[in-house]
Amino acid sequence: MYLCYIDGEFKKPEDAKLPISDLIIQRGVGVFEVMATHDLKILMLTPHLERFKNSAESCGIINLPDVEFMKKIIHEGVLKINKDVRVKAYLSGGDVFDEATGKFTNPRFFVIFEAQDVVSNETRSKGVILDPVPYGRDDPNVKSVDYRKTYQNHSGTFETLYCPDGEITEAGHSTFFLIVNNILITAPLNRVLKGTTRAAIIELAKSENIKVEERCPLWSELAGASEAFITGSVKKVVPVVKIGGIVIGNGKPGTITQKLSNLYDKYISRWLE
């Protein structure tokens, strides 16, 4: 961890503190966003902060900082460090719950600037294994700090994959895409978190005349799928070669996945702020 912004100022990590009265500690009330930088610019900053604000309001957290103010703080922190970093922004429940309105009225805004956890080229070339679980995200409209479900995956797998009732929604930290008969399938936004990289990949796929279906992929479709991949702000595009005991395609990263990954890297400047 390089730097923190908290209590209205930038501080060394060891000097940043939250009071134990904050409801993010006492009751787990809080939301967050994780952003990546590229050439000292923030990837999809506006969509991230819009989702951040919506998550907070969905949780009843009000009196939020202005989006332009949050942008200013994030840019300032990145420039202070002067290297590409992972940015983690938080809005806590604060110290006050107004029982009359059911709102958390005194939130704390804080930001952590830390080293990027980049997926290695070796991992990308081999692909990853996901661990399927029979449940989903509690609320797809909220990126809550409660990520306990995502840490229940078995040893040797890259990430949890949510598979409630025979459908596949999303991965624990990522958007999930499945390719069946050259059609790119991903769950609709009323079922999953509004992934920022998700939108970019769908845009790129359509520009290449790849058919996109926004519906939940079915567990029964995995055996006939040719490719799968996950996306995220920091990880970008990561091929998936196995889900539980099911091998996807020939067990190697596929051509459509690689094409979309290359296009995303090529045009990433479109989404830098």
Offer a concise description of the structure.
This protein has 273 residues and is α+β, with helices and mostly antiparallel strands. The chain is built from six helices and 16 strands.
Any overview of this molecule?
There is one protein chain. The protein is an alpha+beta fold and 273 residues long. It is 23% helix and 27% strand. The chain is built from six helices and 16 strands. It has helices spanning 23-26, 45-58, 67-81, 121-126, 196-207, 255-266; strands spanning 3-6, 9-11, 30-38, 41-42, 86-92, 97-98, 103-104, 109-114, 128-133, 159-162, 175-180, 183-186, 212-214, 227-232, 236-243, 246-247. The strands form three sheets. Strands 9, 10, 11, 12, 13, 14, 15 and 16 form an eight-stranded mixed beta sheet that branches. Strands 2-1-8-5-3-4 form a six-stranded antiparallel beta sheet. A hairpin with a 2-residue loop joins strand 11 and strand 12 (183-186). Helix 5 packs across helix 6. The radius of gyration is 19 Å and the shape is globular.
- Quickly count the helices: 6
Radius of gyration: 19 Å
The helix fraction, in percent, is: 10-25%
**Overall strand count:** 16
Q: Ends: how far apart?
A: 22 Å
Average pLDDT: 96
The chain-level structural class is alpha+beta
Report the uncertain regions.
none
Task: Kindly estimate the percentage of residues that lie in beta strands according to DSSP.
Answer: 25-35%
Report the principal-axis shape.
globular
Note the main sheet.
8 strands, mixed
How do the helices and strands follow one another from N- to C-terminus? EEHEEHHEEEEHEEEEHEEEEH
